[in-house]
Amino acid sequence: MSPVSLSQDYFSFFGIPRKLSVDTADLQSRFYSLSRKFHPDRFARGTVADQQHALDATALLNDAYRVLRDPIQRAEYLLAQEGFDIGEQRSKNVPPELLEEVFELNMLLEETPERDELERARTKFQSMQAETDEELSSLFESYDASEDRKVLQGIRGVLNRRRYIQNLVRDVEKALAQ
Amino acid sequence: MSTFQIDFGEQKSPVVGIDLGTTNSLVAVMGPTGHPEIIHAPDGSRLVPSIVSVSETGELLVGAAAADALLTHPERTVYSAKRFMGRGIHDVQHELEMFPFRVADDSESVIHLQLGDRLLTPPQIGAEVLRHLKEIAELHLGQQVSQAVITVPAYFNDAQRQATKYAGRIAGLEVLRLVNEPTAASLAYGLDKRKEGIVAVYDFGGGTFDISILKLHDGIFEVLATNGDTHLGGDDIDHLLMRIALEDIASEWSENISGNQEAVQLLRRAVIRAKEELSFVPAAFIDLVYHGKTYRRELPRDVFDRLIAPVVNRTLGPCRQCIRDAGVAIEDIAEVVMVGGSTRIPLVRQAVETLFRARPHTELNPDEVVALGAAVQAGILSGDVEDTLLLDVTPLSLGIETMGGVVSKLIHRNSTIPASATEQFTTAVDGQRNVLIHVVQGERELVKDCRSLARFDLKDIDPVPAGMARIEVRFLIDANGILNVTARDVRTGKEQSVDVKPSYGLNDEQVEAMIRESYEKAEEDFRERQVREARVEADAILAATEKAKANDAWFNLSNKERQAIDGAVNQLLVVYNSDDHTLILGHIERLNQATVNLAENMMNTAVRGALKGAKIDDLG
Q1: Known catalytic membership, residue B546
Q2: What are the φ/ψ torsions at residue B47 (nearest 5 degrees)?
Q3: What is the pLDDT of residues B341-354, one digit of tens each?
Q4: Measured between CB atoms, does B8 come within 8 Å of chain A?
Q5: Cβ pair A41:B177 closer than 8 A
Q6: DSSP, residue by residue, B497-562
Q7: DSSP string computed for B1-39
């Protein structure tokens, strides 16, 4: 096997353009054919060097596929590549537009909430999440067209908000499961 | 270390597929027609009971012979050893009371079982079963077998996988791949049909439960998610029935037999028989006859179902979680493949049908389908099976301990393997030479709720001020689901040495010692066989000589010749009990020499007699 460079970024490893919108069906078929090419199963009787390369290339392939097929992880990856600090759990500041929601939910969880109250909260947060997803996909398109760093800045803000909404959904679901 | 030499020559040595099960084990190989086949032993049997026993003379019995020994010498016999693979004593404390064998002290991180005067770890017991299967395969194939694919429960953690790999090495097998059992089963089912779509595999065996959901597409078997319980299986049903029967017996016989292992094992057999019958008939009996006393209890299926419902229900939680993790809707799952002996139980089939709203597939023998799939994977690795590729996942998240005993997850569960993650570490104190990384597996937030996997010691770090060191550590889960850790000093680019201290299971040195021991044992066994064969030969020549003394030819010998023969016989008798087979063979040869004349005379007498006989016949 001719060794493939393992220092490429995920997009070029998959041979796709460096864009935030990705055709997932195409990505999957590329994933399958690259798997057939690199997988350690194909080199079980090969040399030690071939086996090691197969292992490293397939690990990279799998890591890349995991990131690229998920819009959020894909955007975070591209942001990090572009030098943005995406500091996942590090920024503890609640986005100001969510302060009210966070406060209300905490109040609700402190008492013994009724089931339908929790379900209402869940529906609300889920629709907020859907809104941010739509917002993101239009920002993705805008970035792909312009490659404007200012758009990336905006995406970073929305991703941060989305993470908080996701935490709210998680907290409500935890309360519902109890 | 290269204990095993791989032959890269023209002639391809066969790679076998092995299902190392809790209750039974099997070996299979790709047949000439491109279909996997179970290899049967010379007596026609296919299943090898995963039982090992140490006889009173210290010999190891495996399989059916050991299953018999379980009734006569339960305290020297191990079954279900797979439940102890890669585990410590605290993990299995509560179930040990149901097992006849004794666990030795010092079983904190590796369980040691005391069988007679031998102390064996679960990998060594697994190795005996593997060695037995290897011999069966070699007999059948007429050539040496040194490479294998071995299956493991999908939900096995790192330590359990390592233990299984070690078992292979101790048995003299290079383990080319560990394959998850449900995935292997899907290979056996999906090979010919070129199936497409989402498939679930429900694998309920003797000791473990797995559920896997796969996407099949153009020969690619992509596992989307897996879940399970490595301590849930038919054994639990047996134990449930045994507890009830033991209580019954205690009140009926006014005698508690739970300490009597011989009686307990007889009861275990009776309980298993009743359980198995109940898959086909509406009622069965648990029958025990022991020392003239009898116990008989009727077990109708509805009572049985009620009893085992909690065990069966324990499989449903992992199923639901697996469906969620796979990101599929129940309606998307076209088929459910049933694997493992416990899926013969009607209640289990019913529960699966209800949950998945799909008719379970039971066309292939649930005991054999995993081994068949292992053979297919062996065919993939040896290049005999083309266009088929298995993409499996890691069942448990991998993380490291951070401040306050919190887990920072690096590789999430259900990530396709091989998978990797890279983390940078630094030092907290000026001149610090070591950094210790504690790696855990599990889904919980706190270290104490996860399974400790190992501690990796980054050694000989260049002494620099606190916070200046930059050690990049790469965590890589390979295609076997086993973690490999490498480290690099970012500033110097040098490889950083890493010392591994597994929390459970054996370390490399212990495995090496066991491999050596197994070779020595094999040598010892070989020597013993040579001695035994020499004695058999000695018996034959001594008997023949004794018989010859009644022949006319004996009396035709000179005194000197007769004395020489008597002398050689006496000398052979003196060395007969020696452990040195060459000594025995040497004296057999001397007796042979001494009796050349005698044999010749006897031959002549015989020929004369024969000629005489012939003449008489002619005349007659």
Answers
A1: no
A2: -85, 130
A3: 999 999 999 999 99
A4: yes
A5: yes
A6: PEEEEESSS--HHHHHHHHHHHHHHHHHHHHHHHHHHHHHHHHHHHHHHHHHTTSHHHHHS-HHHH
A7: ---S----SSSPPPEEEEEE-SSEEEEEEE-TTSSEEEP
- For residue B117, give the DSSP letter: T
Tokens of B151: 């299956």
Q: A176: Cβ–Cβ under 8 A, 6 or more apart, which residues?
A: A115, A118, A119, A122
- Do the Cβ atoms of B325 and B443 come closer than 8 Å? no
Taking contacts as CB-CB distances below 8 angstroms, the residues of chain A near B217 are 32
**Whether the bond into B418 is cis, omega within 30 of 0:** yes
Choose the weakest-confidence range: B4-18, B368-382, B409-423.
B4-18
pTM, 2 dp: 0.81
pLDDT at B1 over 70: no
- In sequence order, the 6+-apart residues with CB closer than 8 A to the CB of A90 are none
Tell me the pLDDT tens digit for each residue of B563-596.
999 999 999 999 988 888 888 989 999 999 898 8
What pLDDT is recorded for position A87?
A: 63
Structure confidence by residue, pLDDT tens digits, B297-329 = 999 999 999 999 999 999 999 999 999 999 999
CB contact under 8 Å between A62 and B418, yes or no, is yes
SS3 B350: helix
Provide the residue type at B228 as one letter.
G
DSSP string, B279-328: TTSSEEEEEEEETTEEEEEEEEHHHHHHHHHHHHHTTHHHHHHHHHHHT-
CA–CA separation, B576 and B558 (whole Å): 27
Following DSSP, what letter does each residue of A49-116 receive, concatenated?
HHHHHHHHHHHHHHHHHHHHTSHHHHHHHHHHHTT----TTT--PPPGGGHHHHHHHHHHHHS---HH
Please say whether the beta carbons of B398 and B439 come within 8 A: yes
Using alpha carbons, list the distances in angstroms from residue A39 to B9, B12, B18, B349, B417: 23, 21, 22, 36, 10
Q: Decide if pLDDT at B464 tops 60.
A: yes
B158, B203, B210, B235: the catalytic one is: B203
pLDDT on residue A60: 95
Neighbours of A143 (CB within 10 A): 21
Binary contact (A45, B220; C-beta < 8 A):
no
Separation between Cα atoms, residue B249 and residue B268, nearest integer Å:
13
- Write the single-letter amino acid at A10: Y
**Can you say whether residue B321 is alpha, beta or left, with left for phi > 0 and alpha for psi between -120 and 50 degrees?**
alpha
As a 3-state breakdown, chain B gives helix, strand, coil percent values, each rounded to 5, of 45, 25, 30
Residue corresponding to tokens 């950083």: B496
**Could you tell me the two tokens for B439?**
């790696």
Q: Does A66 contact B at CB distance below 8 Å?
A: yes
* pLDDT at B618 exceeding the cut of 70: no
Quote the tokens at residue B384.
């005999």
d(CA A20, CA A68): 9
Mutate to test the interface with B, among A24, A63, A70, A90 (most CBs of B within 10 A): A63
Neighbour-count burial of B240, counting CB atoms closer than 10 A to its CB (0-12 exposed, 13-18 middle, 19+ buried):
middle
- List of residues 6+ apart from B3 with CB closer than 8 A: B169, B515
Q: What is the pLDDT of residues B280-301, one digit of tens each?
A: 999 999 999 988 899 999 999 9
Marked catalytic residue, from B128, B158, B181, B238: B181
Read off the pLDDT of residues A101-131 as tens digits, 9 standing for 90 and up. 777 777 777 777 788 888 888 888 888 889 9
pLDDT at B609: 62
Query: Can B193 be counted among the known catalytic residues?
Result: no
Q: Cα torsion for A158, A160, A164, A169, to the nearest 10°? A: 60
ipTM, two decimals: 0.87
The 8-class DSSP code of residue B392 comes to -
Taking CB atoms and an 8 Å cutoff, what residues of chain A touch B386?
A: none
Per the annotation, the verdict on B181 as an active-site residue is: yes
Instruction: Work out the burial of residue B63: count CB atoms within 10 Å of its CB; fewer than 13 is exposed, 13-18 middle, 19 or more buried.
Output: buried
